[in-house]
Specification:
The chain is of the alpha/beta class and 451 residues long. Helix content is 31%, strand content 20%. The chain has 14 helices and 22 strands. It has helices spanning 2-5, 9-15, 33-48, 61-79, 133-138, 163-171, 203-214, 218-226, 243-246, 318-332, 356-362, 375-388, 404-409, 430-440, and strands at residues 22-25, 53-58, 84-86, 91-93, 98-103, 120-123, 151-155, 180-181, 187-190, 247-248, 259-265, 273-279, 283-284, 290-291, 296-303, 305-306, 309-313, 337-340, 366-369, 397-400, 415-416, 419-423. The strands form five sheets. The protein has a nine-stranded mixed beta sheet, with helices on one face. A seven-stranded mixed beta sheet has the order 10-20-15-12-11-18-19. A hairpin with a 2-residue loop joins strand 16 and strand 17 (309-313). Helix 3 (33-48) packs across helix 4 (61-79), helix 7 (203-214) runs antiparallel to helix 8 and helix 12 packs across helix 14 (430-440). The protein is elongated and about 80 Å long.
Length: 451
């Protein structure tokens, strides 16, 4: 019993954080977080007994099954035959207290627990959620007696579709182990660990296993071993998107002789992203920078994402969005015309029905299909241009620092776990998609700047 329940130094430090403070267990792989979460649940049950109601949430059933085995071992050691598990309901029956495991991947799946009350909610592998909507909904289930501390515990590793919002909420606000105020109004502590914090591992052998699993991806290896959230684990644009080479200071005017066009990715419930791009004729631009012929500069953006929620849109209608695009173009004295997602040209309600592109056209914004079918070829072209930025003899892709949504999202976008040559569409990929449309658009000269 003592061998199973004895916490490691890292786990003891986590258990020492007062229960009225939330936890984010971050860091690399192999740090003993799974057993730490189980110990937190067991302590909560032992301290609050019949009043304890615990909910553990994962996005996938496989994740539930993995943690189920950890709890089975722990509860069997602690309670013997008095502990049982109902695999159909995903509920542990204990001498006192209540522990339920739930798979919640979408807002629709949240219905199974809506309206119910729990005193401890634990959400694991947080970065698997591309946005925090479902996670925020779960907090409404945190209810209990006034004299009982209520708590949420989150856990996750760097990378994944939700890397950006998780890091922004739980890693960047304060130093590790220092309490900070959360958006929900409470307090939280980031408690990171790495495989070196787990004395039960053969650290050298485990490091070799991680190196082999990374298949040559140095950033992935660094994130797994060091738990560094500044590293975008398996980032799609790693190695080609560099702020030192690709970022430029905001422009005040478009240089004479440069062609301009829009690049637009449509969204309502999800964000819409629109960029103004200028194509260099092979000339010196603002700031004395020389841009080889064919270079593209994204010099302004209109992104309808909610603050701190990069995958949630503002719900703008086409006329409202068109007005915003025209206002942006008017500031630069350029025509509101360019490339967009092929899907807005589809006639979903019949051959004669108006398309979203038709609505834009009636509102004064003229868009043509970008050719979305060549998705991977578009990503490859975009990565090539980003990697060539800063070279004096090759065209590159440059992003103004004024394009904040692009710089907030592009560096941490992960690869599709099923296809490393594609981007994970669960992540906030709207800026990336819009820029890809602008890169692959093959009709230069259509939207010349009006002189």
């Amino acid at each position: 019993m003592s061998e199973v329940l004895e916490p490691t130094p890292y786990q003891s430090k986590v258990l020492s954080v007062p229960e009225n403070i939330d936890l984010f267990l971050g860091g690399g792989r192999g740090g003993g977080k799974s057993h730490c979460k189980a110990l937190l649940i067991l302590r909560h049950i032992e301290q609050h007994r019949e009043r304890a109601r615990v909910l553990y949430v994962r996005r996938t059933y496989k994740g539930l099954a993995d943690f189920e085995l950890v709890l089975r071992q722990l509860f069997s050691t602690a309670y013997g035959s008095a502990a049982s598990y109902n695999a159909t309901e995903h509920v542990f029956r204990l001498p006192y207290g209540y522990v339920e495991l739930a798979q919640v991947d979408t807002p629709g799946a949240y219905d199974k627990i809506q309206g119910r009350s729990f005193t401890l909610i634990m959400v694991d592998e947080l970065t698997q959620w591309g946005d925090p909507f479902v996670v925020d909904m779960l907090r409404s289930n945190l209810r209990g007696p006034k004299d009982m501390p209520l708590r949420t515990v989150y856990a996750g590793n760097p990378g994944g579709a939700g890397h950006h919002w998780v890091a922004s909420r739980y890693v960047l606000p304060a130093q590790a182990w220092s309490p900070f105020d959360t958006l929900a109004g409470g307090r939280c502590v980031h408690a990171p660990s790495t495989y070196l914090d787990n004395p039960h591992l053969d650290s050298e052998d485990y490091r070799r296993q991680l190196r082999a699993a990374c298949a040559g991806d140095d950033e992935l290896f660094r994130a797994w071993t060091e738990g560094d959230w500044s590293v975008a684990r398996g980032a799609f644009f790693a190695g080609c998107l560099s702020p030192e080479r690709c970022a430029i200071e905001p422009w005040s005017a478009v240089p004479y002789g440069w062609q301009t066009h829009l690049a637009h990715d449509f969204g309502t419930s999800s964000p819409s992203a629109t960029y103004l791009l200028a194509r260099s004729p092979g000339a010196v631009g603002p700031g004395g920078i020389f841009y080889p012929r064919g270079s593209l500069v994204a010099f302004d953006e209109l992104a309808t994402a909610r603050p701190n929620r990069p995958t949630e849109g503002l719900g703008w209608t086409v006329p409202r969005l068109a007005d915003g695009i025209k206002e942006m173009c008017a500031r630069w004295s350029v025509r509101p015309a360019g490339a967009a997602d092929d899907s807005i040209f589809a006639r979903a309600r019949g051959h004669a029905a108006a398309t979203i592109a038709d609505e834009f056209s009636r509102s004064g914004v003229h868009l043509t299909p970008a050719g979305k079918g060549a998705r991977k070829a578009g990503w490859q072209r975009m990565r090539t241009l980003l990697s060539q930025a800063g070279k004096p003899d090759l065209p590159g892709l440059y992003l103004s620092r004024a394009c904040r949504y692009a710089w907030d999202t592009l560096p941490t976008l992960p690869r599709d776990p099923r296809d490393p040559e594609d981007l994970d569409s669960d992540a906030p990929d709207h800026a990336a998609d819009a820029l890809r449309y602008g890169v692959i658009w093959s009709r230069p000269g259509m939207n010349q700047r009006d002189f």
